[in-house]
Amino acid sequence: MDYKRLKIKTITPMLSHGLNDDELEFRVTELKAAMRFWWRAINTFENLEDMKKKEGILFGDSKNNSSPFRMRAKEKVYPKNRKTKVKGIHINKDIEITLYSNKLYDSNLEFYVKLIKLVSFLGGLGRRSRRSYGVFAVDEGNNVANENKKLIQNLNRNIQEEIQELVQQITNQQAILFKELNFNKINCLPKPEGKYMCLEINKDDYSLEYPYIKKIYISESNFSWKNLISRIDKAIYRTKNKYYYYNSNKAKRFACPVYVTCFSRHSSNLTPIIVELNNTREDEVTTYKKYINKFKEAVLKKGAENE
Fold it and tell me: Could you give the maximum distance between any two Cα atoms of the chain, in Å?
């Protein structure tokens, strides 16, 4: 049986627990759900049935498809630290994950490893993951199944280039591995966006309205965790009015289509990232555009580094 071993390190507090509120728990189900979410976000589909069919084959479903892989965490339960106000898995915690292939042949585990890496760039796990909690970094470590395989890491690579390369690798690889599914062509390209680094995902088809990625903004400054959270709180406060909002109909709950996350080579040095998703509320186009501009200005603008 083929398998792949990874180690992830928490970069920001991970607010995740199971049935017992007194025990923090890393849940592989949350990671797999995040992999599904961001896989949908970088792809395009003709209709809802097309999405369900492709997702079922790649991840499994409750009908005809068993999952082609499974995951396990070596240590997943952590007692809460009563001495701190942060009720989450703290930063710099190492969690070992193993991916197993459920197929005897033609394992595609590397495809799913790339998806996990993409999740580490675009969003976190657990509660408040849309607001920079639950962010982690991936370290493949030594793959016991293939000790002779060298891992190549370039710690000085540009974040924008890494995200761009991951999106292209995932979408190109899925087109090869799952030819029968006829995936549409996806291009992830740099787009000049004033004072921010920006990536735009271009697709052949936008037939289905759902929260797909439109743009990814990357700050040119680095901040401490405390300062980043302060910036996010200010951004939320400044956009809580009718002129800057993504959902004016407060009678209906509607998850914010803007993700704020971050990336770090070292946990004390965070680079903010904002992911702009398609807003499926057609009546909110004007206010959503204002919301995005106001929000990213508050979070991404240059300031004193490592504040």
Answer: 58
Residues of the chain with pLDDT under 70: 1, 18-22, 75-87, 104-107, 140-157, 192-194, 204-207, 241-254, 265-267, 281-285, 303-307
Of 209, 264, 160, residue with least CA distance to 44 = 209
How distant is the alpha carbon of residue 82 from its chain centre? Answer: 29
Backbone angles phi, psi at 92, to 5 degrees: 70, 20
DSSP assignment, residue 239?
T
CA dist., res. 10 & res. 263, Å (int): 11
DSSP, res 280: -
For the chain, give the number of residues. Answer: 307
> What one-character DSSP code corresponds to residue 93?
-
Q: Where are the domains of the chain?
A: 3-300
pLDDT tens digits, 249-264: 554 556 778 899 998 8
Give me the helix-helix angle, 159-177 and 109-122, nearest 10°.
150
289 vs 267: CA distance, rounded Å: 32
Q: Which amino acid is at 191?
A: K
Sheet holding 269-277, edge to edge: 186-190, 197-203, 213-218, 269-277, 258-266
Please report the pLDDT score of residue 136 as a whole number. 92
Residue with tokens 């993504």: 246
Backbone angles phi, psi at 305, to 5 degrees: -65, 145
Task: For residue 86, give the nearest of 127, 37, 43 by alpha carbon.
Answer: 127
CA–CA separation, 259 and 277 (whole Å): 8
- For residue 20, count other CB atoms closer than 10 A to its CB: 10
